[in-house]
Amino acid sequence: MPAIDGLPTLAQVIRTHDLVAKKQLGQNFLLDLNLTAKIARSAGDLTQCDVLEVGPGPGGLTRGLLAEGARRVLAVEKDGRCLPALAEIAAAYPGRLEVVNADALSLDVSAHLTAPVRVVANLPYNIGTELLVRWLSPDTWPPFWQSLTLMFQKEVAQRIVAKPGDKAYGRLALLAQWRTDPRIVLTLPPEAFSPAPKVHSAVVHLARLEAPRFAADGAMLSRITAMAFNQRRKMLRSSLKGMGPDIETRLLAVGIAPTARAEEISLESFCALSRQFT
User: Fold this and answer.
1) Each residue of 104-124: pLDDT tens digit?
2) Can you name the CATH fold of 218-275?
3) How far apart are CA 230 and CA 238, in angstroms?
């Protein structure tokens, strides 16, 4: 695809700066500017938003976000090799791109962003799920972001949107669906990346809810679901026996059969059960 902004193609950028993707950093670069623009558009109207991007690499998605009109982009990149390529993008979009050379797991982004904020990222595979859980579990809600538009391995994306009875249904689905409305908006084949991963990838858009979908204490809900899904093949009366000797009574009180298994229980029912203990 021709350059969207007068800058070299991503393949040229990678050659010029010798940006061989590093497996230990979870890097898989997306080189098709058509696809990066499509991901940027799937995040919605960015013209009035600051955008947080984690793991921009050579800047393909960064360019898509800026070209689609993002008010400002904060790109957090741990790999110092990528900084010269990102600096070239910053020069092409004066005042609209800030690059921070840091580990996203330890950086407080609040000082760098002005609301409204959307998060859009092709997340490094090795930290993607951890970052998602952190963004979904702040001390206060609503969080600093309006929406998350994130690329994961397809199997992780399926876990985020799974429903009761699905093989992929578990704690990640409950956490995501308790406070957001998640949906898969794009699926990409391995050959879209360099190097090509062994699995398909998918982009998930999570629109925040202003309040959790059902009333529950977050810490208690996390504790109950951890116990339930850590032994997901066991009946709940067994997997949750650590919650107290009256667990069967509490299950029955909210309409859950003690012989049911975690994968059969809805988010609403898990929230109702958590309220039994708070």
Assistant:
1) 999 999 889 999 999 999 988
2) Helicase, Ruva Protein; domain 3 (1.10.8)
3) 12
